[in-house]
Known about the structure:
The protein is 23% helix and 17% strand. The protein has 123 residues and is of the alpha+beta class.
Amino acid sequence: MSTSPIGNFVAAGGTSGAPQAQNSRYNGLGTSTFTRPDGTVVRYLNRRLIPPANQFATIRQYVVVDGDRIDTVASTQLGDPLLYWILCDANGVSDPDALTAEPGRVLIITLPAGIGTTGGSGA
Length: 123
């Protein structure tokens, strides 16, 4: 039995755990399976692509100060420390620590992708 959160998620069939939480970036993604040559079935999370910039509605900007952490910025700016991934998506980074590594950096604070925008679909 795996002791990692993702390992536990996969072992549980991908139906419970943090990736299915409402505030998770993986919510609603689903899982797929791969069968190894030895017949072992491996379940994995489907790939999540970072949405394009036109999918985000900017709320405000935030200037990083010395000592900021991405979870505390997400908590103060979005009301939930686990929503740090919205900041990552909106600012085009995959490493959360990169957002607060440099004091003075201006972060774009947005709604989740597709909320408050037309998404560039023209419809």
